[in-house]
Design goal:
Helix content: 55-70%
Strand order of the largest sheet: 6-7-8-3-9-10
Largest sheet: 6 strands, mixed
Number of strands: 10
Strand content: 5-15%
Number of domains: 2
Radius of gyration: 36 Å
CATH architecture of the largest domain: Up-down Bundle
GO molecular function: ATP binding
Number of helices: 21
Shape: elongated
Keywords: ATP-binding, Membrane, Nucleotide-binding, Transmembrane, Transmembrane helix
Membrane topology: Multi-pass membrane protein
Subcellular location: Cell membrane
Protein name: ATP-binding cassette subfamily B protein
Distance between the termini: 49 Å
């Protein structure tokens, strides 16, 4: 029952902290162009395709601007003179211009489509690689939904902006500038009207950027929070159903969804306000231009064909002007998306390979903790280190059991040898070499782990078990031999009864298997890695008594020449060890054989008694006590009896 309750607590806790600082970073202090310029390294390999797309789009815009000039000549010449042949020739010219514009639009899409998807692919793969290299401490702080929304939604938005928004924004701005200059061709007053009526648009656009940028970031962060909520609820669906908390989770989800809806409505209102000005000001410009044009004709300043051409040009410019609001908001969305993606790229990776790594050609497997300290990054200044000066030596080929009460730091200690976390003081060495002086690839080839919470991937049994043997062809005879040996040790031959045997694809996180089956496959994965040091965090907790006995017997053979550190939560696990280390409040307070510690450490006896009580409650069995244990306990009892007699006599 403890595990479901713990999972439910984590689900509810994560739902309460959706606005955590790690996922709700503010937009960077960079200007929008500078923020978007960070995309340049991803675009650079295909920049000429983007240049071609921009050139095609600009050519289409220029052709569109030529049409009013041709119409002016048609109205002023052939239509005024009534020359049918020239009118037809003019119509053909306009048709050809229209065809040329359509061709340039097609070329723009042809140039842009492939490189934009390449940029998306490159960004997505590099971001995934970045997530793989960032330390576990990073993933402790970040919600999975936030990472997922950046990986999929934000990068997809950036791709669409590069392919569509950026090109059209640049081209439409150039079209407006060129068109505005051409409007002065007919009369300075008409051009001035066009420029003056655009000033409110510039002011509104500036105010719009400030407001919309904040709302866009808030919306995308809330979408990430919502994705996290869905993911956690799906993963924890068994717990929610078991405790009847579906409505409770729905209420929390509805609250988050409503917050996102409110933000989206605020975004819509912001866009609506700028669209109001984008629709209003061109109409005002048309009205003022019409009145001014009629007056200018009456004064003989311009002719009717020129006024006709002016309005044809203004009509061509209307779409670029109206599109600026949409394209501007699109650019701000892309800027926010880039901020969110670069939040991850800019994270500092504290666990990296050394500049001059040390190699171990023939590791013996001596694992040593030398005054090792560790504290989590969010620990208060007044809190003591979780691991407060660990001194422990595991001799080559030795199996060391690690015992202690809950919260003593056992699991945390197991994360230090493979550098899932780095010590904050002291050091951990393998054969005398500081683990920080080795490459992560080599270190994790020599040291393998199996966790209590067995995580499997949506892949075949074979791929899951041989995950740690990158150098091995998993379908070769050698791969088959390693696979079978690992499955035999972990008593995981149940896989042969699966529909496709070892080629059966395991469902998401292995939830289609029982807890014991997942744990056995995780143990097989650690054994198959063939490490010099094996770190096991209570790997047998989900096994029944009979299977556990078989696994322990097989593990004894495997551990005969492998250094092993095993976190023991069950008395039977302690029996696997050559020696036992007692962890108490972040320190190793005693090391020795099981019998020695029973004789010399009252706290060890208390811990073992607790483990035996938990085991008896779990299995309903009477704890098994060996003759050696009994002899040690009798001696301890006699010592305590003699001490009591002396105290009475005194």
């Amino acid at each position: 029952m403890a595990e479901p309750v713990s999972l439910l607590f984590r689900i509810e806790t994560r739902l309460r902290v959706m606005s955590s600082s790690s996922s709700q970073k503010q937009s960077s202090s960079l200007s929008t162009p500078a923020a978007l310029w960070r995309l340049a390294p991803f675009v650079r390999p295909v920049v000429w395709r983007f240049v071609g797309g921009a050139a095609s789009a600009l050519a289409a815009a220029v052709i569109a601007l030529m049409i009013p000039l041709v119409l002016e000549q048609i109205v002023q010449g052939p239509i005024r003179t009534g020359s049918v042949g020239l009118i037809i020739l003019g119509a053909v010219a306009v048709l050809l211009l229209g065809f040329g514009e359509a061709l340039m639009v097609w070329l723009r899409r042809w140039f842009i489509l492939k490189p934009s998807t390449e940029v998306e692919y490159r960004m997505r793969t590099q971001l995934y690689a970045r997530l793989q290299t960032l330390p576990v401490a990073f993933h402790d702080r970040w919600q999975s939904g936030q990472l997922l929304s950046r990986m999929m939604q934000d990068i997809g938005l950036i791709r669409r902006w590069l392919a569509f928004g950026l090109i059209l924004l640049v081209v439409n701005l150039l079209t407006i500038i060129i068109g505005a200059v051409l409007l002065f061709r007919w009369h300075w007053l008409l051009g001035t009207i066009f420029i003056v009526t655009a000033i409110p648009l510039w002011i509104t656009g500036y105010r719009f950027e400030k407001r919309y940028g904040r709302l866009a970031r808030q919306s995308q962060d809330q979408a990430g929070d919502l994705a996290t909520s869905v993911e956690e609820s799906v993963h924890g669906i068994r717990v929610l159903k078991a405790f009847g908390r579906g409505k409770h989770a729905l209420t929390r989800f509805s609250t988050q969804a409503e917050s996102l809806r409110t933000t989206e409505l605020s975004k819509a209102r912001a866009v609506g306000s700028i669209w109001f000005w984008l629709d209003l000001m061109p109409q005002v410009a048309f009205g003022l231009s019409l009145m001014s044009g009629i007056w200018l004709i009456s004064q003989g300043a311009i002719e009717l064909p020129e006024l006709f051409a002016f309005f044809a040009m203004a009509t061509v410019l209307r779409w670029p002007i109206e599109s600026i609001g949409f394209l501007f908001s699109f650019m701000l969305d892309a800027r926010t998306a880039s901020d969110r993606v670069f939040d991850i790229f800019s994270e500092t990776n504290s666990i990296t390979d050394p500049e001059q790594p040390v190699r171990l050609e023939a590791p013996r497997g001596e694992l040593v903790f030398e005054n090792a300290h560790f504290r989590y990054q969010d620990a208060g200044a007044a809190e003591r280190d979780l691991l407060d000066g660990i001194d422990l030596v595991l001799r080559p080929g030795e199996t060391m059991a690690l015992v202690g009460l809950t919260g003593s730091g056992k699991t945390t200690l197991t994360t230090l040898p493979t550098r899932l976390y780095d010590v904050t003081g002291g050091r951990v060495t393998l054969d005398g070499v500081d683990v920080r002086d080795m490459t992560l690839v080599e270190l994790r080839r020599h040291i393998a782990m199996a966790f209590e919470d067995a995580t499997l991937f949506s892949a075949s049994v074979r791929e899951n078990v041989l995950l740690g043997r990158a150098e091995l062809d998993i379908h070769s005879e050698e791969g088959e031999r390693v696979l079978r040996e690992a499955l035999d040790v972990a008593q995981a031959n149940f896989v042969d009864a699966l529909p496709e045997g070892v080629e059966t694809v395991i469902g998401e996180e292995g939830l289609s298997l029982s807890g014991g089956q997942r744990q056995r496959l995780a143990l097989a994965r650690a054994v198959a890695a063939n490490p010099r040091v094996l770190v096991l965090d209570d790997p047998l907790s989900a096994l029944d008594v009979d299977t556990e006995a078989l696994v322990e017997e097989a593990l004894r053979r495997v551990l005969a020449d492998t250094t092993a550190m095993i976190v023991a939560h069950r008395p039977s696990t302690v029996a696997l060890a050559d020696r036992v280390a007692l962890l108490e409040r972040g320190r190793i307070t005693a090391v020795g054989t099981h019998s020695e510690l029973l004789r010399t450490s009252a706290h060890y006896r208390h811990v073992i008694s607790s483990l035996e009580a938990e085991e008896a409650a779990r299995t309903g069995a009477i704890p098994i006590i060996t003759d050696e244990d009994l002899e040690a306990r009798v001696e301890v009892t006699a010592d305590e009896h003699r001490t009591t007699e002396k105290e009475v006599q005194a």
